[in-house]
Amino acid sequence: MEQVDPPTSLGDLAVRARHDARATERLMEGVRELALKYARVRFARFGAEDLAQDIAQEVCMAVLSALPTYEHRGLPFEAFVYRVAANKVADAQRLVLRSATPVAAVPDGLDDRPGPEAQAVTRAEADQALALMEQLPEQQREIITLRVVLGLSTEEAAASLGMTAGAVRVAQHRALTKLRALMAAREASVVA
User: Fold this and answer.
1) What CA–CA distance (Å, rounded) separates 136 from 16?
2) Which site from 10, 15, 102, 184 is most exposed, i.e. has the minimal number of CB atoms within 10 Å?
């Protein structure tokens, strides 16, 4: 019977990873999951899954190379990963905005993915949500991304943004209230 390790925070894994290969493997799995979620959210409007995967890989490599010199400074390890991911996403966004869009190759077999109509509906809904989010102040957008999309705790988001947990809660409440109002206004204008 295979022994299953109990759930451990990324911070605990980062400490153990210096001497334990299994902890390093689990740490990189957690880092990749966090980075991939973040990159997917930031590149949703471009539909760039390959780019999100590449960014997650770059984040893993950067975190792994920084691990021997990483020092705990009171912030959750997730905040460190978030900062690395934010920097990699910013670099990739600059490249995306400057480069040509690649053309996909003709597939060899059947495509099991959703058809053009389903993709269009999904993309339209995502675009609407992102358009509403763009109307929020930058800090509120980051809080929604960290709390709702990435699932960070209030304390982790606060540490990542240099705020208090209470300030994050208040800003998140205001952001969600504003998003609801914007959505209601958009739906009212569509019906009218």
Assistant:
1) 39
2) 102
